[in-house]
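Pasting as-is:
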Amino acid sequence: MPKITRIDNDTFDVTIAAAIETTHRVTVDDDYYEKLTKGRVEKEKLLQEAFKFLLNRESNSSILSQFTLQTIEQYFPDFPREMRNRFR
């Protein structure tokens, strides 16, 4: 399970403990958060699910060290649909 630390309203550090521990600085803007969750869960829960999604597709050491959450859909176009389905 990723460890999520809120830096400010939109910025989080996500630490993944695995063979190689990694930390990722992720920005989640309010508009994208609302698009994916309709405000049904906290941003931290969205990040937990987003990292589960990513870790099912690549190792933690392959995940960018700093990115906006929207960046995921550039690599995985099914990401927004998958997140919306999880938060219905």
